[in-house]
Write a structure and sequence with these properties.
This protein is an alpha+beta fold. The chain has two domains: 2-130, 2-Layer Sandwich (60s Ribosomal Protein L30, Chain: A); 146-320, Alpha-Beta Complex (Phosphoribosyl-aminoimidazole Synthetase, Chain A, domain 2), CATH 3.90.650. The chain contains eleven helices and twelve strands. The strands form two sheets. Strands 7-10-6-11-8-12-9 form a seven-stranded mixed sheet, with helices on both faces. α6 (184-193) runs antiparallel to α11 (290-299) and α7 (205-217) packs parallel to α9 (245-254). It starts with a helix and ends with a strand. It binds cobalt (II) ion (CO). Residues 25, 65, 68, 199-200, 202 line the site of cobalt (II) ion. Cobalt (II) ion binds next to α2 and β7.
Length: 321
Amino acid sequence: MAQVLCQLPQNDDPNLLSRNIPCADAGIYQISPELVLLQSIDFFTPVVDDPYLFGAIAASNALSDVYAMGGKPITAMNMVGFPNCLDIDILTQILCGSTDKVHEAGATVVGGHSIEDEEPKFGLAITGTAHPEQMITTLGCQAGDLLVLTKPLGTGLLTTALKAKVLSEQQIEVALKGMERLNRYASEAMLKIGVSACTDITGFGLIGHALEMAEASQVRLTIHGESLPDYPHAIDMAENGLVPEGRFRNHRHYMPRVTGEEGQDQHIIDLLCDPQTSGGLLISVPAQRLDQLLAALNDAGDQAFIIGEVDSGPAGTMQLI
Ligand code: CO
């Protein structure tokens, strides 16, 4: 995508603040001194068989970018690709799951668009708002900050196993609950405490999204391989070699900027590169606020895993230890 975008004419609209933020989670457009619009879009083919759950996960995933920026989602638009031959009740269920999740986010579904497609696809375009001085971006990581991740890893491994019928939806229930969980509550917790930077973990995996934050902030991230949290059964799938294609793409693209791979177990590398659906927030927090953040996340009902720290090594890189 970057190869395509760099060939387009330069956008010099001064209100497009995300122009100056490499790898911002959402488009940031200033409409008044107190207000920016945050806009983001995501859609994909079903990751689970249950259509209601698929809708809920797709909505949670699409809303996540606004939450990573400390914003408040306002409106959502549905994007549907659906085959003629499938029962229309399936689509109703997908939209019900999604709409319930959008309502949980305090936002409104304002419409959408559908096309006939060979394979079902569903996602949403989200518009949120934030105060320009209060929004959180990928820019602010400071050497000495701790890195906190709010959901375990492994959803790519587990949904691949589900598709291959190696695992059932019951067996991956913990991960399904995790994917369905809005990042809203973790976002509100980090806003209350005040953090340096944040991004959310989705298709590029922890490796990709962490490196993009390292690049934007011009810092190095040190990640403790043994501290990476995993959903139940994810490592079993990795050890059996049932690994999603996206894991290899992420590895190829991002591993050149990482040192220390050789000292890690293979399953740690699989988790690091695993593409996530509706993954958690990766928060960079000053050391003196860590305990407050952990308490706030706990009060919000979210998990918090300390997976590493920020240092002043080569900008835009990662060190695995
Ligand atoms: Co994002």
